[in-house]
Amino acid sequence: MPSPFHEVRFPLALSYGSRGGPERRTEIVTLGSGDEERNSLWRHSRRTYNAGPALRRAEDVAVLIAFFEERRGPLYGFRWRDPFDHASAPPGREPAPTDQALGTGDGTTRVFPLAKTYGGAFAPYARPITKPVAGSVTVAVGGVALAPAAFTVDATTGLVTLAAAPGLGAVVTAGFTFDVPVRFATDRIEIDHQALRAGVVADIPILEIRR
User: Fold this and answer.
1) Alpha-carbon distance 142 to 119, whole Å?
2) Mean pLDDT per segment of 10 residues, for the chain of length 211 residues?
3) pLDDT (tens digit, 9 = 90+) per residue, 156-203?
4) Which of 9, 80, 98, 200 is 20 to 30 Å from 72 at the Cα level?
5) Quick check: 7 and 76 in contact, CB under 8 A?
6) Please, what is the Cα angle at 64 between 59 and 67, to 5 degrees?
7) What is the mean pLDDT of the chain?
8) In the Cβ-directed half-sphere of 151, how many Cα atoms lie within 13 Å?
9) What angle do CA 76, 78, 82 make, to 5 degrees?
10) CB atoms within 10 A of CB 203
């Protein structure tokens, strides 16, 4: 049974100044000879973020508390906008339907999961994208953009369903913007009341949800 999730984004105004990025888990064994053996324990990276510390207005603190309480702390997941990695295209360029390869047609398959590929020269990594922004996805087959009526997108799972199965060997691509599915990584939010109308929230740890 999937964990409970609210399809709402963490307020962008409260995420300014946040820090974080991808984390991987690697096992490294040093042999008696001094040689190393390295093994990746995780198939996919996991993003961690922290929305603090920052001096916030009383109004912002109230919004943060309301958001935290409605999520019941870490119980309900929510969307997070990564300011440096939230689109299929490189920074400064608008997403295009040929940005990211989703798969190759076989004449039968109509459903393709969204993904974003990092690198390409040695060991490219395909990251599953499960929370696209509704209305942002464009799709192409064989380099030709499809009309919006030729496909549907589930914004809660990242699955693209084509009206017609692509022919054998036809490359399916997509462009999009997306959020990261996350949850609070703490049961407690501590606010330091520094002034009458402002406070410092020192730590708001946020963790990517992987299914």
Assistant:
1) 22
2) 88 87 94 91 94 76 93 97 95 96 97 97 95 98 98 98 98 98 94 66 89 74
3) 999 999 999 999 999 999 999 999 999 999 999 888 776 556 667 778
4) 200
5) no
6) 125
7) 92
8) 30
9) 150
10) 13
| Tokens describing residue 144 | 């030709």
Give me 28's structure tokens.
């490294």
**pLDDT the model gives residue 130:** 98
